[in-house]
Amino acid sequence: MKYTLPLLTLTAACAAAHCLAVEVPPEAGELRIHTAIEVEFGTQRGTVYQLQGSSNLVDWTVIGDPVYGVGQPVSRVYSTRTGTEVSFQSYRLEVLDAPTNGLAPWSLAGMTFSLDDQPGDDQVRFDTETEGRDLGTSPDPFRYTFQRTGPDTVTADLQRDADRHDLLTLTFTAAGQGTWVREEYRKGRLKDRDVGLFTVLATDGQPGGGEPPPGGPVTRPVGLAGTVYTFESGCGPVRLEFTSAGTGIEHGDDVQDDEPNVFTYAFTVTGTNTASLVITFKPGRVDEYDLTFGSDLRGRFERRELRDGQLKDTDRGTFGASGPGSPGGSDATGVMPEGSLKGLTYMMNDGETPDRLVFESDSAGTEYSDDVGDTEPNVFTYEYAVTGARAATLRILRRSKDRRDEYDLVFLDGNTGSFVRREYRAGVLKDTDSGLFSGAVTAP
């Protein structure tokens, strides 16, 4: 005891004087206390706040990350242990206008998300600024705290009861769609972590994400020839390649339908940001699309599937375009890797349990399944080849030479896009899947 108080006094005095010293780790049973500062401030939605510190009221140092205001008070704690990072005589809050090129919303109120971590999808509805529910046969209500952590990323901490909460992170890669991570905590401990792709199904009761997001002026084409559109409604992506002014090819409409479908189409402009698209596959089979464009040739749609003149199904969701002259197309830069996938992680989602492919070298990697029943990682070798301005192939070989997967990749926006996967066992095609993929730099 007699050595503890002088040590604590010295630590506090050193921190107060902003002195620097090489710190010796504490010995067993030795107690040390370090000071910290806590700041709290109110925020206004659509504004960014940056804390700064100064010792002379002339030179100001940035402290921590910027805070995106969402209309709620913010509290932050910073340690002064090092005596340099946040130990200043004066502090101030810099208030900045938020960047306008982000895809993330400033509020989740009124939005419905489809999360594709299991067949049939999870659907989450945010009814107000603080309350929401999981949709389904037995809706599960929750309270939540919302944060916008970057131009394209938001988090929602879903409090279900005193001992149970989920932290949901949504990263938007295009209008109304992106990737998600959900961390499930039970009694303060992380119990499970799921990842996948999401689609905004509705905003304030409107399908496909409501009004066009910020990021640029509304763009509506006068024709579709030479473009590729991917439509996502939460039931699996549909990729339409418009090969000419009146014909095209559909890919990935049904996991049981391995052959592409040739179609004819009629595209009609109906307003400043709206159009209709009528696709005819064969007599008696017609799909009608109502398209509402936002920025960068993305937006929302309603699709009516007609069979022999009878309405069989109606879907709503979001779409995005690529192709010559369109975002993410052949004249975009940095769209896809050109040589090796080393250092990247790809999430491959076919509407069921997503697979995570981690490429650790120029020719080898590890596959992880986010299915709790499949805990063993699978080591593989791979071959990657660019086959077009926005296309590539990926061939994965497992330890067993009789097991391989072949991917056809179409890059639509950044390092994301759609895929068709053929699974071979002993040289025989066993299954064909299609879906969406997203790539990111592997976390260290």
**Mean pLDDT across residues:** 76
Give the biggest sheet: 8 strands, antiparallel, barrel
Provide the domain count. 4
Helix content: under 10%
In whole angstroms, the N-to-C terminal distance is: 42 Å
**Number of distinct beta strands:** 30
Which word captures the global form?
Answer: globular
Q: How are the strands of the largest sheet arranged?
A: 6-7-8-9-10-11-12-13
Unreliable stretches covering 5 or more consecutive residues: 1-21, 205-216, 253-258, 323-334, 370-374
Number of helices: 1
Structural class: mainly beta
Rg measurement, Å:
26 Å
Strand content: over 45%
Descriptive account of the structure:
With 444 residues, this protein is mainly β. It folds into 4 domains: 4-97, no CATH class; 111-207, Lipocalin; 228-322, Lipocalin; 344-441. The protein contains 1 helix and 30 strands. The strands form 5 sheets. The protein has an 8-stranded antiparallel beta barrel with strand order 6-7-8-9-10-11-12-13. Strand 13 (189-203) and strand 14 (206-207) form a beta hairpin. The chain starts with a helix and ends with a strand.
SSE layout:
Layout: H1 4-16, E1 36-41, E2 47-54, E3 61-68, E4 74-79, E5 90-97, E6 111-115, E7 122-126, E8 131-134, E9 140-148, E10 153-161, E11 164-174, E12 177-186, E13 189-203, E14 206-207, E15 228-232, E16 238-241, E17 247-251, E18 261-269, E19 274-282, E20 285-293, E21 298-307, E22 310-322, E23 344-349, E24 355-359, E25 364-369, E26 378-386, E27 391-398, E28 403-413, E29 416-425, E30 428-441
Antiparallel strand pairs: 1-4, 2-3, 2-5, 6-7, 6-13, 7-8, 8-9, 9-10, 10-11, 11-12, 12-13, 13-14, 15-16, 15-22, 16-17, 17-18, 18-19, 19-20, 20-21, 21-22, 23-24, 23-30, 24-25, 25-26, 26-27, 27-28, 28-29, 29-30
